[in-house]
Amino acid sequence: MSLVLHVDGERWRAHLQSVAEAHPGLVPVIKGNGYGFGLGRLARKAAWLGVDTVAVGQYDELPEVATRFDGDLLVLTPWRPFGTLAVDGLHDRVVHTLGRPEDVAGLLARQPDARFVLERMTSMRRHGLSARELWSVAELLTAHPGARLEGVALHLPLAQGSHLAEVERLVNDVVAAGLTTRTLWVSHLTDHELAGLRASYPDYTVRPRIGTDLWLGDRGALSVTATVLDVHAVERGDGFGYRARTIPKAGHLLIVSGGTAHGIGLEAPTGDASLKARVGTLARGGMDAVGFVRSPFSIDGKQRLFAEPPHMQASMLFLPAGARVPAVGDRLDVRVRYTTTAFDRVDLS
Ligand SMILES: *Cc1c(COP(=O)(O)O)cnc(C)c1O
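^ thats the input. predicted complex w/ pyridoxal-5'-phosphate below
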C-alpha cells in the first residue's frame, strides 16, 4: 500500500565501508529527510561504520541523531543568537559552526568552553568569514582561553572544474590568521583534490564531510516501488478525477500508491491547463499528444502518464489500450529524487 525504498543491505553496507576506508577522517552528513533513509537509520549506520563524528544540517536534527550515535555532532548551519535549540546534555558533543565575528563573541558569552569550527567564506557565498574577519576572530580568541576551536570549515560548490586553487588560497588565509587549529573540515572535494590538499598541507588533518556520495553513492543497491491499488477499464469520453476531465481514448486508469505527501510528481502541472503551461511541459518532452504528463512510475520499463496531478497519497495513471495491464497488488518501479522523497517504509535486507 506504500511507497517503499528497498535497500540491498549487503551491497549498501559494502559501499559505505568502501567510502569510509577511502576517506580517512570521514564525517558522514545526516540531514534533511536522511537522504531518503531517515535520520535515525543513518545515525545508527554511522555508529556501525565506527566514525567519531557526524554532521547534522541544523540544531533541530540533533535529538534524533544524538540518541543513536554517541560521538561528536557537528552542526552545519551556523550558530545564531536566535532560534538555536538548547543543546542540553549535548554540551560536550556538539561542535557549532560560526560564520560571523559577532556570533563567535555571542556563543562564547553564553558558553565560554563551547566547541566550534570557524567557517571560511568560499565561492559558494552561503556563510562564512572573510580573510580579514578570520584574522580578527583569531585575535578575539586569545581572550577566550576556554574556547575549544575544532577547526576551519570550507563548503565548496559542487565540482565544476577544480577547487584546488581556491582551496589553497583559503587555507593560506587560515595559516596566515595564526589560528591554533590544524583541522580542516571540507565539503565537496574530489578524492584527487583531497589528496592534493593533504600533500600541500601535511601538518593539517583534513576531514571530508560527505552525504550524497556516501549514502546514495551506489544507486544499484537501491530501488523504489509503489503498489497498484486499483485498475479501471475506461472508454473514450468517460469522466474521471478531481476535475471531472474526460478520457481521451480507451485504456485503463491505474490508482497507485505514492502522491504529493511523498514528494511525488512535484514537476507535474498543478491543474494549470493554460496553453502556455502546456507548451512548457510539452517542450520539456513530458506530455503526450492527448495532454497527459509523464509520471515517475514505470510499467514494463516504460514511464507511464499521469491521468491527473498526483493526489496526497496516491496517483492516477493512464495506460493506453494495448499495454499490459498490471494487477491490483503488483509493484511498480518509481524514479524519485531520494533527497526529496518521504518513503512510507525502508526495506533493508
Ligand atoms: C549538505 C552539506 C554537505 C553534504 O553534501 P552532499 O552533497 O550531500 O555530500 C556538506 N557540507 C555542507 C556544509 C552541507 O550543507
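The chain has two domains: 9-217, 220-348.
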